[in-house]
Specification:
The structure holds two protein chains of two kinds. Chain A is mainly alpha-helical. In chain A, 71% of the residues lie in helices and 0% in strands. Chain A contains 19 helices and no strands. Chain B has two domains: 50 residues, no CATH class; 212 residues, Rossmann fold. The chains are: A mainly alpha, B alpha/beta. Chains A and B meet through helix 1, helix 9 and helix 19 of A and helix 1, helix 2 and helix 4 of B.
Chain lengths: 454, 283
């Protein structure tokens, strides 16, 4: 059950919120823990054991690191965490077919972050309830965002508040309202924009890449880029919104990436909690850019190599990660010496190169990647039975989702929302967007591929 | 306590309760066909599923079922006087006055079989069902409005009509209901285009992989539906074309290399279907 499940939206979440806010403020962290365990058990009844085992292991090591400050204990805990992640992720390579537990990467990354921050003194005490809430909290357990431990420490609703019952109720309702707005926007982005553009993308596979026209190949690349963006941004907004409903601060995972000035800048804005995790726990410990040009290049390579295999071990992810790595190195060491050229080329890279790299990311088979790229750049004619008017059909069918995708990508949208989010008209617009999302969800039974009616 | 502080929460809560209550109250009338296990699906979804089919709380409920079965048998009796015909090979000009009606697979034929597309007329739409053909205004006119099949055929003359629907309906009703509505559609087409020979294209199979993993869209279910509509052919004016003969592998599944999703033919793979139609003309 994900956040875009009707049972979650209309049943589980409201019931949980009522219980969460009925119990005294001091018990809410326990309510969150129980709710999170229930949510995870509902989604992953057997492999919850892995989550419990890893939580127990990390709590024990956290005590050890906290008491002794031992680097060996930290190293051992990181090695065990990474090994467990590697074991499940790459079991197929060893001929095993282990099922990857839901959200494994995300909770392991949080566990590593917790241990390192404890060693560095950023986390000062080991609290069972706060640490388990941090590892297990249901708004982030499936796909992040990868928060830091300070996120848990800043929950306003866990503090006993003064005031009359009416004032306290008002505070709770306005807190839920703030989160609900984000959740409704995220739901709309995911269900209306991302899931519909996902259908366009899968239809290209249906036709066969050798039979799509060059304009359609480009349209497909942009449609997939928007699909991926709104799928993840929408999901992240829903997760952040649920977090806000529970009293946590807003956590930003996407910051207008398509208006970045370069590809390095793009990846500072895209899935930024993952990027910052790699920066703080891989890039900086390796020396970052402080140890000379060649070490910097090696460090960037290590980060992108790990990013690539984190997404998957097929060749396409390696090519995707390495192509980005090369461009980032080129931007950092060559283009940065020519600011005026960088200003132009950097943006072209974001708007043209990034969609091409997403094609490599999306298509696992190298021969299919070749076919697709040759349709984008028809230097060799591999086309079979191309319908030259195909792009017209797709624009007719999907123009509204493409247009919405472009509108929501423009930074003005976010700044307008931040400025006017309490305006009655804006609230009414979000209300309508919420029900449009629910309408679409009701007719797809929660499965985006149900849109693929034949 | 100002409501503006939690306006969205109030609106969503009130509207949600209202929609759920309406759906619950009308579960035995307007929403009868949409009401399913309330444990699995919240009541809010019922109203929206119905809305997608143009059914609202104020929509009138008709309890009487149409009785076309009788008229089918009457006209079948009349048709029986005509002679039985056999398939013959034709060329592409055969499609000059042909009409193709169907779902996304027919849309694919229109987009990737130039020989037919440049000659024939297509009334094809993604997710089209036999129920839609009978009940809905689904054919888009040039001005963007939609019209029923009866309206679209006004003033037109076709001597061949090819039908291909059935996969979208696999989860709706049973094969008997499917056959019954299919018969009504054929009867309607005969009435609207009395000179037309009607070709029922079998529902195209899915690939072996799809067949194995999909509990609904699999070849067992498709074969049951195909068997049901096969009997509608009288080999006088209505013919059944088992196009799976042209697109299947040796195990009776859609050839894996010809499909990207296990359901639709790739753009480059419509030729076997085209050739099959050429080999199965009726003069």
């Amino acid at each position: 059950m994900t956040f875009s499940d009707l049972n979650f939206i209309f049943r589980l979440l409201p019931i949980f919120l009522i219980i969460y806010y009925i119990v005294p403020a001091s018990l809410r962290k326990w309510a969150l823990l129980l709710g999170s365990l229930g949510f995870y058990y509902f989604n992953e009844p057997r492999l919850i054991l892995v989550l419990i085992a890893m939580t127990t292991f990390n709590l024990l090591f956290a005590q050890l690191i906290n008491k002794s400050g031992s680097k060996t204990a930290l190293t051992a805990s990181v090695i065990v965490n990474v090994s467990v992640l590697g074991l499940f992720k790459f079991s197929k390579l060893a001929g095993l077919s282990l099922i990857i537990p839901l959200g494994l990467s995300y909770y392991i990354f949080k566990m590593i972050s917790y241990q390192v921050d404890l060693y560095r003194g950023k986390v000062t005490e080991v609290s069972f309830i706060k640490a388990t809430d941090y590892f297990l909290m249901f708004p982030q357990i499936i796909s992040g965002p990868i928060a830091r431990f300070s996120y848990v420490e800043n929950n306003l609703m866990w503090l006993k508040t003064e005031g009359t019952r009416k004032e306290r109720l008002f505070k709770v309702l306005t807190q839920i309202e703030e989160g609900l707005k984000l959740m409704a926007l995220g739901l709309f982005m995911k269900i209306i924009i991302a899931d519909h553009l996902a259908v366009l993308w899968s239809e290209l596979k249906v036709i066969g890449y050798e039979s799509i026209s060059t304009p359609l190949a480009w349209l497909g690349a942009y449609a997939y880029s928007l699909n991926l963006y709104f799928d993840f941004w929408g999901y992240s907004l829903m997760a952040a919104g649920i977090g806000v409903m529970l009293g946590f601060p807003f956590i930003r995972n996407f910051n207008q990436p398509y208006f970045a000035t370069s590809i390095s800048d793009f990846y500072r804005r895209w899935h930024s909690t993952l990027g910052e995790w790699f920066k703080d726990y891989v890039y900086f410990p390796l020396g970052g850019s402080r140890k000379g040009k060649y070490r910097t290049i090696i460090n960037i390579f290590v980060v992108w190599f790990l990013t690539g295999i984190w997404h998957g071990y097929t060749a396409n992810f390696f090519i995707w990660a390495m192509s980005i790595c090369i461009i980032i190195v080129f931007e950092k060491f060559v283009l940065s010496h020519f600011p005026k050229i960088m200003a132009v080329i950097g943006r072209i890279n974001v708007l043209v190169i990034i969609p091409i790299t997403w094609i490599v990311f999306a298509i696992r088979s190298l021969s299919d990647i070749r076919l697709y790229l040759l349709r984008m750049f028809p230097v060799v004619d591999i086309s079979v039975a191309v319908n030259k008017k195909d792009i017209v059909y797709y624009i007719e069918d999907y123009w509204i989702y493409l247009l919405l995708g472009i509108v929501f990508t423009i930074p003005v949208f976010t700044s307008f929302y931040n400025k006017h989010k309490d305006n009655v008209c804006v609230v009414l617009a979000i209300f309508i967007m919420f029900w449009i999302g629910i309408f679409s969800l009701s007719n797809s039974a929660g499965n985006p591929f149900m849109y693929l009616r034949f | 306590m100002r409501i503006k502080g939690f306006l969205l929460l109030s609106l969503i809560t009130i509207s949600s309760i209202g929609i759920a209550a309406t759906s619950f109250c009308l579960r035995d009338s307007v929403y009868k066909d949409y009401y399913s296990n309330p444990v699995k699906l919240p009541m809010e979804a019922v109203a929206f599923k119905a809305m997608a089919d143009g059914v609202y709380p104020w929509t009138s409920v008709f309890l009487n079922e149409d009785s076309t079965e009788d008229s089918v048998s009457v006209s079948t009796a009349l048709e029986n006087k005509k002679e039985i015909k056999e398939f013959t090979t034709v060329d592409d000009t055969y499609f000059d006055d042909a009409l193709f009606i169907g779902d996304s697979r027919m849309v694919g034929l229109s987009q990737y079989c130039e020989a037919i597309d440049t000659r024939a007329t297509f009334f094809a739409k993604k997710s089209l069902t036999i129920f839609d053909i009978r009940n809905k205004e689904w054919i888009e006119a040039e001005d963007g409005t939609t019209m029923s099949i009866a309206k679209a055929l006004e003033g037109k003359h076709f001597t061949k009509i090819y039908l291909m629907v059935g996969i979208n309906e696999l989860g709706t009703g049973d094969e008997e209901r499917f056959r019954q509505v299919y018969a009504q559609v054929i009867e309607g087409l005969r009435y609207l285009q009395p000179d037309a020979t009607i070709f029922i294209n079998s529902i195209m199979h899915v690939s072996e992989e799809k067949n194995t993993i999909d509990e609904l869209y699999n070849n067992t279910n498709i074969n049951i539906r195909n068997e049901a509509i096969k009997g509608l052919a009288d080999n006088r004016t209505v013919f059944y074309l088992d196009i799976n003969e042209a697109v299947d592998d040796e195990n009776g599944n859609l050839k894996a290399e010809t499909t990207g999703d296990g359901v639709h033919l790739k753009g480059a793979c419509y030729e076997p279907w085209h050739q099959y139609l050429l080999e199965h003309g009726i003069e």
